[in-house]
Amino acid sequence: MSRVVNPDNAGKLRTQHMRMAAEVLRHLSQKQELDDDAKDMAASLVYCFREIEDGIEESMIAWEKRNYWNKVEQFRSQWTWVGLAAAKLEKLIADDAWDNLPAQLVSLFPHFSDITINKFTRKSDAWEGAYQRLKREISAR
Questions:
Q1: What was the pLDDT predicted at 120?
Q2: Residue 3 above 60 pLDDT?
Q3: What is the DSSP code string of 62-108?
Q4: Nearest 5°: phi and psi at 96?
Q5: N or C terminus: which one in the chain shows less Cβ crowding within 10 Å?
């Protein structure tokens, strides 16, 4: 029997979500005004960061099983910003504090400095409707 390999492992999915978030950040930074599209982009960042955070937890569980405690702690500290960023953006959206969005976005850029975007690969349908979905999710709590 051959080994079963998961093509969508946590690292690959994390890279895909980081790339998506980087593209959304670049699109948002080019916006001149806050419109529905910008709100959708901001909400999609929340979802990207949540997915990244879930992948971080998945990776850490695998390492904990192998007793790689130092690696787990180092990895956890390296990625703590993801959960914090998701929570801050979600609160910003829930409170309709859109004046704070530019400052929040600027604080995220250093985490994406190593991602080079030569060509945008995501279309607007990647984030379309994310704002309404997040608002429904927030109001259901």
A1: 84
A2: no
A3: HHHHTT-HHHHHHHHHHTHHHHHHHHHHHHHHHTT-GGGHHHHHHHH
A4: 50, 40
A5: N
* pLDDT given at position 141: 81
Chain segment 77-94, per-residue pLDDT in tens: 999 999 999 999 999 999
pTM for this model (two decimals): 0.88
Which residue type is seen at 105?
L
Domain ranges for the chain, please list them: 10-140
Tokens read off for 84: 């914090």
Q: 55 in helix, strand or coil?
A: helix
User: Terminus-to-terminus CA distance in the chain, angstroms?
Assistant: 47
The tokens describing 125, both together, are: 């349908």
Number of Cα atoms under 13 Å in the Cβ half of residue 121: 10
Residues 6+ apart with CB under 8 A from 41: 24, 27, 28, 31, 127, 130
Contact 86, 50 (CB under 8 A): yes
CA-to-CA distance for 23 and 122, rounded, in angstroms? 7
Amino acid at 115: I
